[in-house]
Amino acid sequence: MNILVVRTDKLGDFITALPTMYVLKKHNPQNRIVVFVAPLNKSLAESCDFIDEILIDDGKSSLFALARKLKSAKIDLSITLFSNTRVALAQFLAGIKGRYAPATKIAQIFYNHRVKQRRSEVKMAEFEYNLALAREVFTDIDLSFPKPLLQFDDSKAIYEKFCQENEITKELIAFHVGFGGSSDANWNLDEYEVLIRDILTQEKYDVVLTFGPDENALREEMQKRLGNKKVVFYLSNEGIVHFAKLIANFKLFVSTSTGTYHLASLVGTPTMTFFGDSNFASAKRWKSIGNEKLQKHYMLPMDAEKREAMFESVRKELLSL
Fold first, then answer.
1. Exposed e or buried b for every residue in 96-114, given b needs 16+ CB within 10 A?
2. Angle at alpha carbon of residue 304, lines to 299 and 305, rounded to 5°
3. What is the reported pTM?
4. What is the radius of gyration, based on Cα positions, of the chain?
5. How far apart are CA 84 and CA 1, in angstroms?
């Protein structure tokens, strides 16, 4: 059976879909798992041995071109984890017989299997809602998956080379201070600077600050703040997969709830993550797919006094490592 799994949004959202793709393949290895993703996530999808074919939605193709692309893949059924009218109508026009999706938005009229989930109530995490859709298709499916879900044979070699090039001699703690607009909560740069200086003062770990390829201005700002300290300022220009292989070896990955947090957890790295203090942005909804014992979550309050108290808790947590 050719099964299409649709998740065409951002990196973190795509990672929450990977367990669903894995269990569908595990349920029947004869299933051909075809994924429909944004261009950003193509290379990561290519790294997953439980994905057989990748279709890309660049958001620019006409509706009919999109429908032709889906039709050519000879899909038997589709599971759309997050929908919009464009991808819903394209599947309808492609003649996919079984089309499963959450019963939300106007797009639901183009699906013939609409599942009421009410994700806004946050009764489960996003990845668990995704898995629940797979069970709507196969009621006897085993929803368990390995943690970490993704491992690389050359990860250690890449890390060792990185350490050699940057004169790193201790375990690495990473801080990712940016967030690309996908998170409701984060510390400001002054607060991050305090946390980083705390770690450096201990002289127990080395520190790397990681930045996306479009965050050079942010990197330069942090270099001005910390340039006299032994810190590596790493601009990730070698792609998501290379970055995943590198961070798989870090002692800890500190960030707000954004795609890089999900990437770190995907490859088994311990995380310290900051979330908005609301159901929609909470750790309850956006906890990652990795081992929960390796995830430390903080819900940042809006109240200034409570926020200050939480900041001190984070400082103590880091200093106790």
1. bebbbbbebeebbebbebb
2. 95
3. 0.95
4. 21
5. 25
**Structure tokens that stand for 108 in this block:** 């639901």
Could you tell me the CA-to-CA distances from 309 to 162, 276, 298, 301, 314 in Å, in that order? Answer: 36, 16, 12, 10, 9
Give residue limits of the domains in the chain: 2-137, 155-319
**Contact between 284 and 300 (Cβ < 8 Å):** no
Sign of CA dihedral 75, 76, 80, 86: positive
Length of the chain equals: 321
How do 53-56 and 206-211 pair as beta strands?
unpaired
- Note the pLDDT of residue 183: 53
Is residue 228 scored above 90 in pLDDT? no
Q: Which CATH architecture group holds 2-137?
A: 3-Layer(aba) Sandwich (3.40)
Q: For residues 210 and 236, is the Cβ–Cβ distance under 8 A?
A: yes
Q: CA dihedral defined by 286, 291, 292, 297, rounded to 10 degrees?
A: -60
Q: Is 167 left (phi over 0), alpha (psi -120 to 50) or beta?
A: left
- DSSP sequence for 210-260: EE-TT-HHHHHHHHHHHTTSSEEEEE--S-HHHHHHHHTT-SEEEEESSHH
Q: Comparing C-alpha atoms, which of 259, 186, 250 is closest to residue 17?
A: 259
CATH 3.40.50.2000 fits 155-319, yes or no: yes
Residue 191 identity: E
pLDDT digits (tens, 9 = 90+) for 108-144: 999 999 999 988 899 999 999 999 999 999 999 999 9
The closest of 146, 117, 121 to 133, measured between CA atoms, is 117
In percent, how much of the chain has pLDDT > 90?
89
